[in-house]
Amino acid sequence: MIKHYETSLYDGKRHEEVNRTINHANLSITIDTQKPFQTMMGFGGAFTESAAYTLSLMPDEKREEVLKAYFDPEEGLNYTLGRVHINSCDFSLKNYTYVEENDTSLETFDIARERQWVIPMIKDAEKIRGGKLNLLASPWSPPGWMKDTGIMNHGGKLLPKYYGTWANYYAKFIEAYEAENLNIFAVTVQNEPAAKQTWDSCEYTAEEERDFVAKHLGPVLEKTGHEDVNIIVWDHNRDIIVDRADTILKDSEARKYVWGTGIHWYVSEAFENLSKVHDLHPDKHLLFTEGCIEGGVQLNVFENGERYARNMIGDIDNYCEGYIDWNLTLNEIGGPNHVGNYCDAPIISDTVEKTLNYNVSYYAIAHFSKHVMPGAKRIESSSESDLKHVAFLNTDGSVVIVIQNETEKDHEVELTHSREAFKTLIKKRSISTIKFEV
Fold first, then answer.
1. What is the CATH number of the domain that holds 25?
2. Is 294 one of the annotated active-site residues of the chain?
């Protein structure tokens, strides 16, 4: 059985099953199930304080609808991954930490603030999912007193005398989440370490990040019994990922603690840089850890959905193993954000009108997450056309191919692989998922 799902600009379809079968084709895409690449981990989004707080302002049935829309394995996006922030981030209501000022012993460490909105949201998502979520934890800034600037915002650096204290902070956070029966599968060293932001931020050179992992974070996680929690470096854009990742991974001491490299999509669409990192360090992993549409809410802008699909295809076709979107939901202006850095989200929760708005980006993600299961292998797909595409082999034997047509021309395409041949119309300005069921 073959199924074709489509999101299109001109037809207005949103991940809808269609019949585009045709008799003749002038383009071909060949899928080779015998040429597997990376194993896919899954898809997800970020449980920011802003997202959780926004949902707390919505009627109960709307809050549940959002969580089902993402985490229900059948009716939703089948999310299995999530991201949380250690201390505050820009998408928090204010700057905050988990310890009192100058508490170098971390005796006052307490995540009580997360129990107000964030942790209940995660637990409710897990109930809907019917299982545990794999959570990635990222810090935006250490407490201000640990930095050379004395404040959390506007960049600055972690003072060397607090390297050990800060490493122990991660362990405390992991243990606090474990006490809540939540699974932190990985931590990143620092969100966007090359950026001096107006919000919570901290800067590291590649060498500083390398040494912090090798001499402090890696040994501390090992010593505290958290050696199974993966360490992800970089957690920033693709533009200089090769140099940043290579500087860390070619160091034998840092390398033994590092699981892989995290990617954001801002600034650059140099997808080929991921393959360069993979080729240099083929035993290490690549994970997309953040991306969003900036500049506030932009309802139903088709180009934003195209950006999601283009980036997902580009990254996955270059060895990325999973995709974690940014805020799961935001309010009607793209916040709250404690420095006014408003953004868009796949689902906008209007806290004034008490309505939900599903953006095109939501449906773009659906083309991947609803069909590509955790454990699927990316497989080779080849074509001489101007269509973007990436193919997968699920563990149940089904084959999935996602095809994006950003041109203003319909394309007649024949898909061929070892078991099937199928001719279909790929509409102009569309995203298609075609699944060959077993």
1. 2.60.40.1180
2. no
